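Support reply, case 0932

Customer input (verbatim):
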Amino acid sequence: MISIRLQGKPTNLTIIQIYASTTEAEESTIDDFYMHLQQILDDVPKKDAILIIGDWNAKVGETAVPDIVGKFGLGKRNEAGERLIDFCQENHMIITNTCFQQPKRRLYTWTTPNGQHRNQIDYILCNRRWKSSITSIKTRPGADCGTGHELLLACFRIKLKQHHNSTQTAKPDLQNIPYKYKVETRREAKANGNRQAFTKLNADFQRAARKDKEKQIMRECEKVEEYNKKGMTRYLIKKIKYFRGQFIPRNGTLTDQNGKYLTNGDEIKTNGNNTPRNYTRRKSMEQEI
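Our regenerated output:
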């Protein structure tokens, strides 16, 4: 199973990809599958929109179940389909690709190797709260997937949140460094015990990296000057923030005369004269005396 969580508006989206055991598997294997899936689902925040997609190896059939199975399923329900419905009922999920009327060729999701039988065993589950966000769902029989399964597509209406790159210091462009300076060559020299060659290659690499970094910084400075001349204030400030990097405050600790860490506010006030600065100052005065 694979789980991914995407930030979006008005809620975050969690997608769980699964593959269920076939009906020929042992009962304990099927129980372990649903137990593992339930553990993953319990860790998902309740406010998230949840999609569980994959090959369930189950047939829920064309008989509708209120708030779980729609009236556009295929075939007859089997034991694995009953187990899937019980899981949906316990977790307030709905099997979405049974809720949209489509031609039968857009409903079946799997074809037997001999091409004689077609079944609907792949499903997309969604929590009932967000079922109206799914506007369409159907298969693409003509898609070349290299498997007996058909490509199942769902249109889900949610706006993903945009992520802005955090400001960070300029990094050197190391793409154009000659091959002899690269890691593989230096590692090979070190493995062969050629310490002198390794030291030289390492020094040459550091020198080439510094030159590359200086060239990149000069290019970025030219952009800053260009933005300043053209009055492009927004880009100018953005580029300056890029160079400045993100501010990270330094966290320090205070200790008393015995070296014990001070964590309580009253203890810090009482032992305020034992700060590292005052301690260093007193120690230097004692040495002068």
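We compared this against your earlier run and they match. Two observations from our side: Confidence is low (pLDDT under 50) at residues 276-289. The helical segments are 27-42, 79-91, 183-191, 195-230, 233-244, 265-270, 276-288. Please reopen the case if you see a mismatch on your end.
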